[in-house]
């Protein structure tokens, strides 16, 4: 509408400086700024009122229909976007939400049951290990108890054992010599 460049604004500023004077120029700019602000506010209010009147009359629906007729591809894309946004909205109170909650609960129950069974298996394995551990020391104790007294007896009577061994050796030798002549005599 108004096409003012830098040179035109500079020319207007020089003329205003000459006509108004340097003393009153800041006050003039302030008044002009306030006037422009009020004019913009009035234009905004007028636009808002016209939009409200058009919405009441249904012009926006007519505008959407005309837009759809003039741009069918864009309208199709808009409807696809709307459908996609409806799908992304998740309502947990709906039937699918209830089913999902039930499935999640079943999964959690299955995990809890599996954990309990795992604990029972571990406890059974520990009990089995404890029973095995209890049996092993008893068997080891019996073997050690049987060996220790025998070792003590042999260690406590070495001289008697040697004497008994010598006597049996001499007896067996004397019996052999006696038994030999008798066997020759009989033959």
Notes on the structure:
- There is one protein chain.
- This protein is mainly alpha-helical.
- Among the domains are: 1-71; 94-144.
- Helix content is 90%, strand content 0%.
- The chain has helices at 6-20, 25-57, 59-70, 72-88, 95-156, 158-186.
Per DSSP E runs of 2 or more residues, the count of β-strands stands at 0
Oligomeric assembly: single chain
Number of helices: 6
Our measurement of the CA-to-CA distance between the termini, rounded to an integer number of angstroms, reads 162 Å
Give, in order, the helices and strands.
Answer: HHHHHH
Shape: elongated
Keywords:
single chain; 187 residues; 6 helices; elongated
Short description:
The protein is mainly α. The chain has helices at residues 6-20, 25-57, 59-70, 72-88, 95-156, 158-186.
Write the layout of secondary structure elements.
Blueprint: H1 6-20, H2 25-57, H3 59-70, H4 72-88, H5 95-156, H6 158-186
Helix pairs in contact: 3-4
């Amino acid at each position: 509408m108004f096409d003012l460049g830098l040179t035109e604004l500079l020319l207007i500023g020089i003329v205003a400086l000459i006509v108004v004077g340097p003393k009153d120029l800041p006050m003039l700019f302030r008044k002009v700024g306030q006037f422009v602000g009020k004019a913009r506010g009035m234009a905004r209010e007028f636009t808002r009122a016209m939009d409200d009147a058009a919405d009441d009359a249904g012009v926006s629906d007519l505008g959407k229909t005309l837009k759809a007729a003039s741009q069918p591809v864009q309208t199709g894309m808009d409807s696809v976007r709307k459908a996609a946004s409806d799908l992304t909205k998740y309502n947990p109170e709906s039937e699918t939400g209830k089913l999902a909650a039930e499935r999640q609960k079943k999964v959690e129950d299955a995990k809890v049951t599996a954990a309990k069974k795992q604990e029972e298996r571990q406890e059974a394995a520990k009990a089995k290990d404890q029973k095995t551990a209890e049996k092993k020391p008893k068997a080891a104790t019996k073997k050690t108890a049987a060996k220790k007294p025998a070792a003590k007896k042999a260690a406590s009577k070495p001289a008697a054992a040697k004497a008994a061994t010598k006597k049996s050796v001499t007896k067996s030798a004397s019996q052999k010599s006696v038994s030999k002549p008798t066997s020759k005599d009989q033959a």
